[in-house]
Amino acid sequence: MYKIGAFAKLSGVTVKTLRHYDELGLLKPARVDEESGYRFYTADQLLTIRRIAGFKKQGLTLEMMRPMLRGPSSLTQAECTLLERRKQLELQVQEARRQIAEIDERLVRIERHAAAAEEGMFSIRSVEPVLVASIRESLPKGQLCLLLDELKQYVRSHGEESDSELTIVWHSRADCDEEPSDIEVAVPVSNQISSNLRVKIHQLSGMEKAASYIHRCDPYKENCTATEALRRWIANESYRPIENLPFREIYLTSDKDIYGQLRMAEAIVPVERV
Q1: pLDDT over 60 (residue 118)
Q2: Do 267 and 180 form a contact (C-beta atoms < 8 A)?
Q3: Helix spans in 120-196 (H)
Q4: What is the rounded average pLDDT of the residues 215-225?
């Protein structure tokens, strides 16, 4: 017979593990000295240790092993246990594949946004009309995130993608961020989903000619100067803003694709030649 320390070295498991197996009833000592409380094991109990190790390689939990280690256990019972574990592994594989697919999509978006940033920051381009779900309200800029969250929840509840590009249309902007501005937030939708008192489904108008500024900004700060920089560039290029048309901001990077503090965004101002 072997004392617990010697048997631990022989079996390649720790004393703590042997005590845990004893508590769970997976591997009881062959004898326990009544006076000292010492546990003793026999060489043939190594087989149980090896069986436990084999079951662990199959991913079985200690609880799943118990009926196959204690007392009579039929092949049918073993088959059921293994089939249950196989089903668990299949679900894990499916989840792993889903996560890999999502990571691949994010990598593509990161590459696309990086390329967009490298192509040039300022440009003149046309803007195509797009079907959107939108909410328009007069509120301080600090509450903009609440409006965006409400809209994303709505489109998600109607089976639409909520993490696509977000557009903010500034119909009028207060001089102070604490004062209410006339703001419309919009998310592209693929179908004519239902509207309600808050959410409107409509065609966001296009622009024949617009000045664009693709940049990186911190969504946690309220002092983004992109629009001011774009207006200066517009003046230098002999254009002027069309005053009766609102300017827009588009968040090119979705919330879940922000790594660090910066997100890709585009400021858009409708323009005409001076």
Answers
A1: no
A2: no
A3: 144-157
A4: 73
Asked whether 222 and 148 are in contact (CB, 8 A), the reply is no
Predicted confidence (pLDDT) at residue 119 exceeds the cutoff of 60: no
- Of 251, 133, 134, the closest CA to residue 190 belongs to 133
In angstroms, the CA 66 to CA 194 distance is 55
Query: Which two structure tokens, joined as six digits, stand for 66?
Result: 């118990």
DSSP annotation of 59: T
**165 Cβ contact list (under 8 Å, min separation 6):** 187, 188, 250, 251, 252, 254
CA 270 to chain centre: 34
What DSSP letter does each residue of 42-99 carry, written as one string?
-GGGHHHHHHHHHHHHTT--HHHHHHHHSS---HHHHHHHHHHHHHHHHHHHHHHHHH
C-beta of residue 162 within 8 angstroms of C-beta of residue 132: no
pLDDT at 73: 62
Cα(182)–Cα(268) distance, rounded to whole angstroms? 17
pTM listed for this prediction: 0.63
Pairing state of beta strands 263-273 and 207-217? antiparallel
Confidence at residue 239, expressed as pLDDT on a 0 to 100 scale? 94
Cβ proximity of 52 and 65 under 8 Å:
yes
β-strand partners of 188: 132
- How many CA atoms are closer than 13 Å to the CA of 57, on its beta-carbon side? 6
What's the helix, strand, coil split of the chain in %, to 5?
45, 25, 30
Lowest mean pLDDT among 30-34, 114-118, 210-214, 256-260: 114-118
Please check whether residue 198 is in contact with residue 147, taking contact to mean a CB–CB distance below 8 angstroms: no
According to the model, what pLDDT value does residue 218 have?
76
